[in-house]
Amino acid sequence: MKFTLSWLKEHLDTDANLTAILEALTNVGLEVEGVENPADKLGAFRIAKVLSAAPHPQADKLQVLSVDAGNGPLQVVCGAPNARAGLVGVFGSPGATVPSNGMVLKVAAIRGVESNGMMCSFRELELGEDHDGIIELAEDAPVGQVYAQWAQLDDPVIDVSITPNRQDCMGVRGIARDLAAAGLGTLKPLDEVVAGLPPIMPQGAGPDVRTDDAAGCPAFYGQAVRGVKNGPSPEWLQHRLKAVGQKPISALVDITNFVMFGLGRPLHVYDMTKLSGGLVARKAKDSESVVALNGKTYTLTDGMTVIADDAAVHDIGGIMGGEHSGCSDDTTDVLIECAYFDPEHIARTGQKLLLTSDARTRFERGVDPEFLDEGLAIATRLVLALCGGTPSEVTRSGTPPKVGPVVGYDPALAETLGGLAVPQEQQVDILKSLGFTVQPLDGNGDPVEMDEGFEAFRVTAPSWRRDIDGPADIVEEVIRIAGIDNVPSVPLPRTPGVATPTATPEQKLERRVRRAAAARGLNEAITWSFLSEKEAAAVGGGDWTLANPISEDMKVMRPSLLPGLLSATRRNVDRGASSVRLFEVGRRYFADGERATVGFVLAGEKTARGWQTGKAQAFAAHDAKAEVLALLAEAGAPVANLQNFGDASGAYHPGQSGTLRLGPKTVLAEYGVLHPNLAKQFGLSGSVVVAEIFLDAVPLKRKSGFMRAPFTPPALQAVKRDFAFLVPEAVEADALVRAVKGADKKSIVDVRLFDVFVGPGVDEGFTSLAVEITLQPGEKSFTDEELGAISAAVVKAAEKLGGALRG
Amino acid sequence: MTETTALKSGLLADIAAANNLAAVEELRVGALGKQGVITALLKTLGGMSADERLEKGPAIQDLRESVTAAIAERKATLEQAALDARLASEKLDMTLPADIGPVGSVHPVSQVMDELAEIFADLGFSVATGPEIEDDWHNFTALNIPETHPARAMHDTFYFPDVDGAAQRMLLRTHTSPVQIRTMMNQKPPIRIIAPGRVYRSDSDATHTPMFHQIEGLVIDRGITLGHLKWTLETFLKAFFERDDIVLRLRPSYFPFTEPSVEVDVGYTMVNGQRVIGGSDGWLEVLGSGMVHRKVIEACGLDPEEWQGFAFGTGVDRLAMLKYGMTDLRAFFDGDLRWLKHYGFSALDVPTLSGGVGA
Predict the structure, then answer these.
(1) What does the pLDDT look like over A227-272, one tens digit per residue?
(2) What angle do helix axes B3-17 and B21-32 make, rounded to 10 degrees?
(3) Which residues of chain A are within 8 Å of residue B291 when distances are taken between CB atoms?
(4) What are phi and psi of B63, to 5 degrees?
(5) Per-window interface: A 527-556 vs B, CB < 8 A
(6) Residue A724 burial by CB count (10 A; 0-12/13-18/19+): exposed, middle or buried?
(7) Are strands A579-590 and A523-524 parallel, antiparallel or unpaired?
(8) How far is residue B157's CA from residue A548's CA, in Å, rounded to a whole number?
């Protein structure tokens, strides 16, 4: 909400300077977002008179002017069509900066003729859109004076952010009231502010207006003024509206805006000659439509409140008027509407139509329901003052809702809730200055005097404070005016001793896995939770699609972390990265919940070319497995008991991927080479291996004290033996390792596969697999017979899989 | 000079003159081997009478010991020389680079969340979580934001399509505040929690991204006032920025779920053209907060006459930027390795109270 200092002072009698006012605004909760004095950048522009104008010798469209800006004639080249001798305008001398484009004026030759400055247009000075010619001022404007001073532009524009609860501050007067309460002056009585306006001498009955929609429009007041003369509003009004960013339209329309911005009271004016019959506030009929003042057509639906005559809809009630019945320069008879629209109705209609307006912003917050008569009267008096005419009586249909909530309030709450001890008398003063009434009550709830000893206050909020509905609101009013920044800090009570741990097992799991991945050389990224439909489809499709995505690329909640990481990988590759190790810890989103997941992508070079290692080495499928196992181990998963399965999702190369499970159904991770189709979709070439670890499936460690299982290192050294088997190629390494391990569960403590060979010396259809087994003797060393028996058992286990010991 | 003495001086001279290990070995065999001269002399001892042995024995023994020692010494000298020569030939260029392997990193948002958890754990706050796909009731209604409330316009909400028969419209949470509701409904007071996580708003420009991170704090207890809120925020910010000169400015504001509501600014100082938290040259808006609204407490099934407390919320990404100096929020979600390596943290930068939470 913007306003000027002079507008504020129309309502606030104050000696405070601008700095004090700005500080007070922020302190009472009206946050200052900006302050700008248009005169600041116009100091170098003076009123000047064109003494003579002659054609430019070299250019048809230019003229050579002689200009007096107070210090005698200067030669100025000018291209404006309206430049002529006798014109009084605004001149920028060399050194001045043109506000619209930042250009610094200097003495320069234009087509061979020296020019000593510039005659300016409104647009060049950022004072309007007019650029058809240079500014033309009244002939008697004082030549040589700083233009901004003369034009009263030396008036700071203050922009404050009004929170949604403060409908009363959507007008300058409400802001003035808050400042007065904060001790920055006195709020002038409204009668005094409008004292200069002519009184209303009504003639004839009020206009034919009524409300048939008591819910949407509980009150509809109207007053007609006949015989008005519309046209541009006077300079002071135009200036005021322009200063706050409003475009002046015509006197009648400008009056409604002046009342709205000044007093927070939206109004609407109709050209009566364009209406057929009376005006009714009613519910819209389905598919009725109206061309609004912004030129757009809105199709209305049942439930929206409109103002219509016998023929058509003329107003989207409380939001925007219609083009057809709007006032123009020809308007002679005007109907002024002053209605109360229900905030909830306004909000719903505005949301449905996606239509915002200054009126909606105010009605939806709730305008003062006791300010219909006065608001209408002020508007009518302004019409009389600026456009003349004869006023009718006021027609009043319906009644505005009764507000002014009554709250029982214990003044001790300022301290027990608000943390600030404010003396009772000061609390009463603050509340009164904001328009509240305060009645002390005794223990029986009967009114008493302040000094008679009271139990609580009965506080009645003013009609403009719809937001007040409980004692906490009263606390807020008291402490925001008393100074919320004065609240002293009070330590939270602390449990004695060292702080106890608070992290849950899930949180600790995520933290461990994250730092383990970083320790293993992976870089953590955070990617969007949403994907395009195409990306989501590539990983099986998502369960959640946004109804109002910000773009098609951010539409479906991700069912996998891979697409986001692959897109990030692609961006890194495009930036020249030769090796990418990215991981993310985040959620996947499904119909039945959100699942904690780790995803990673390893792409490009695993090791760069090097003097020790030779050529660069690419990532391979089993590199993904290594990371998965390492991270699962850190996550506390029983890595030794995990089962290798195939059946990774379609995102993976079907022959170079796998899953790790705890039992056949619980999948802890899937990993492998990215499916070439996905690699192509994400613009990646070369080796890309990926994985996802499903943290929600990892069994959480239960805390069972800190004691470890008892352990003493065995006295005897372990024995190692190597075996090489020829196995049918369909037999997977894991099957052989498990079979061998099972050959003697007591003695064989480890089986490590260390060689895989296919080629010369190995029959077609077979693979040579070599394993090293570790045997741990117990009390006594193994005898040759025992070792022989174990070896035989190992060979036999391999033979069951179709394997044969290599000779 | 006896024969033995002559033999000794001859052998010792030969040993000293031997210039390779083979020559030393040859001398050893010649003297001490099975057929060696000293071995032969030792053998004569057995055939001697006791008197003769007493007379010649010591000299022969001395001969054997001296020669054995001389051979060992010579051998060691020659071996050392050979080793020195080999080592001299094995010189490597130790200025060649060594590969330390890939260096990973933790994202600043994760790091800051860990820092916050550490600080608030000391103040007795635990970490709570909730779903990001929320229903209308938890995100708005229970927080005293009815459907037509203008405050809903402040949240540019991402919605999911209406489902026929569904009781609630689903949406992406616009703030972490629904976790307040879930906590109050599932846990008996006193409550002290923080709730960090992803939140979403339909907003995108230089300083806004459609997804970002917030952290919510909630205290519900008896006799909690705005003064406790102020202390908590001061204490937290002092610990987070590891500075004692943190100055807060409280401003009245409005959030539907708190009353009174307070916007909190933190003072900064200009250092080399950058805003550094601490001091009060200027103010940065960092937190929204207030005393939990009675209606919210009631909506969660608690008695507002008995329980009151405060809530606050702030942007985790923003805290990270203020502490570590990043300037572009969008870079947080780009996954640019150059950025991650520059602004990221070592796996071992685990925030601790003893070591300081910052890294």
Answers:
(1) 999 999 998 999 899 889 899 999 999 999 999 999 999 999 999 9
(2) 160
(3) 417-418, 472
(4) -60, -50
(5) 527-530, 544-550, 554
(6) middle
(7) parallel
(8) 9
Instruction: Provide the ipTM.
Output: 0.89
CATH architecture of B108-336: 2-Layer Sandwich (3.30)
Cα distance between residue A324 and residue A326, in whole Å? 6
Calculate how close chain B gets to A523, using CA atoms only, in Å: 5
Tens of pLDDT, residue by residue over A343-384, are 999 988 998 888 889 999 999 989 999 999 999 999 999 999
Is residue A495 within 8 A of residue A439, CB to CB? The reply is no
Q: What tokens appear for A225 in the block?
A: 């003024």
User: What are the structure tokens assigned to A172, written together?
Assistant: 């300058």
Give the pairing of strands B191-200 and B126-127. parallel
Contact B252 A485 (CB under 8 A): no
- Reduced to 3 states (helix: H, G, I; strand: E, B; else coil), residue A64 is strand
- Taking the CA of residue A413 and the nearest CA in chain B, the distance in Å comes to 9
User: Which DSSP state fits B352?
Assistant: B
Residue A252 CA to residue A805 CA, distance in Å, equals: 105
Question: Is B250 in contact with A484 (Cβ distance < 8 A)?
Answer: yes
Give the list of residues 6+ apart from residue B326 with CB closer than 8 angstroms, or none: B108, B320, B332, B343
Partner-chain contact A587 B132, CB within 8 Å: yes
Helix (H, G, I), strand (E, B) or coil at A36: strand
How would you write B233-280 as a 3-class SS string?
HHHHHHHHHCCCCCCEEEEEEEECCEEEEEEEEEEEEEECCEEEECCC
The domain limits of chain B are: 3-87, 108-336
Task: Identify the pLDDT of residue B25.
Answer: 92
**Alpha carbon of A442: minimum distance to chain B alpha carbons (Å):** 21
**Angle at which helices A505-519 and B108-122 cross, to 10°:** 140
* Contact between residue A544 and residue B133 where contact means Cβ atoms under 8 Å apart: yes
Give me the residue from B124, B153, B259 closest to A476, CB to CB: B259
Determine the residue of chain A that is closest to B204 in CA distance: A550
What percent helix, strand, coil does chain A show, rounded to 5?
Answer: 30, 30, 45
Start-to-end Cα distance in chain A = 92
What's the Cα-to-Cα distance from A131 to each of A82, A224, A246, A247, B45, rounded to whole Å?
11, 38, 18, 16, 134
Q: Is 90 exceeded by the pLDDT of residue A124? A: no
Give rounded-to-5 percent helix, strand, coil for chain B: 45, 25, 35
Helix, strand or coil for residue A104?
Answer: strand
Q: Which residues pair with B49 in a beta bridge?
A: none
For residue B86, the distance in angstroms to the closest alpha carbon of chain A comes to: 23
Residue A328: closest CA among A258, A290, A382, A274: A274
Asked if A517's CB is within 8 angstroms of B225's CB, the reply is: no
Burial bucket for residue A354 (CB in 10 Å: 0-12, 13-18, 19+):
exposed
A737 contacts A803 by C-beta, under 8 angstroms: no
Q: pTM score, two decimals?
A: 0.86
Rounded Cα distance between B333 and B351, Å, is 23
Looking at the DSSP assignment, which residues form a beta bridge with residue A29? Answer: none
Q: Is residue A327 within 8 Å of residue A270, measured between CB atoms?
A: yes
What distance in Å separates the CA atoms of residue A583 and residue A160, rounded to the nearest whole number?
44
Tell me if chain B has a CB within 8 Å of the CB of A582.
yes
Q: What is residue A274's DSSP assignment?
A: G
Q: With an 8 Å Cβ cutoff, is B78 touching chain A?
A: no
Site of tokens 């009524």: A210
**Number of helical (H) and strand (E) elements in chain A, helices listed first:** 20, 40
**DSSP-derived secondary structure letter, A498:** S
Report the SS3 class of residue B220.
strand
Do B253 and A525 count as a contact with CB atoms less than 8 A apart?
Answer: no
CB A479 within 8 A of CB A414: yes
Handedness of CA A644, A645, A650, A654 (dihedral sign): positive
How much is the pLDDT for B205? 78
